[in-house]
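General statements about sequence and structure are easier to judge against a single worked case. When preparing material for the folding task, we compiled for one chain both its residues and its backbone structure tokens. The amino acid sequence and the backbone structure tokens for this protein are reproduced below:
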Amino acid sequence: MAEATAAHDDDPISNRNRIIAAAARLTCAHGWSKVTMGRLATEAGVSRQTVYNAVGSRDDLAEAMVLTESAQFIFHIAEAFDRHPDDLLAAIHDAVENTLTFAEGNALLRAVVSATHGADTELLPLLTTHSESLLGTVKVVIQDRVDQYEVTLPPERIAVIIDIVVRSALSHVMQPTASPRETAESITWLVACVLGRTEELVGTGV
């Protein structure tokens, strides 16, 4: 074990990723309150000092977990738009459905959300702190993609639509009221109505 730990300690980037992943596993299995630096070091297969060197304090670790999950959401959104360079409505549908499906199967997100009903409330302020930052980043990513399509609306109106879509999708991440596909269809239909392009949805099931 000592040799394995020493080998891991030589790779700072790999260590950080491994430690954040280990922290997420422990949080899902036992709750954030049970995640100690010693337990985390054992789970990640590194020394306790390496944990501190890689992620800093326990608060820094919690923030890193939240930001890592946020990056995953942004990746799914960008990937969906990139798959449909010539069809804006299909891109929106794909982005919303894939993001919600990812959230549905995200154990860490469920653990954080469920903390509102238990004692593990330490992670919740981080979601609030970073929510506006995440919201802004997602909107910028979508705006960059939407700029590649032909949309006959002034920029300020497009920005409003993007804001509504993003806020609606994220609200369903936290509190889903339908399946990912059904929610994606509803949001896509709304955008199509605003753009006057509902005829494009005929035969698509939306």
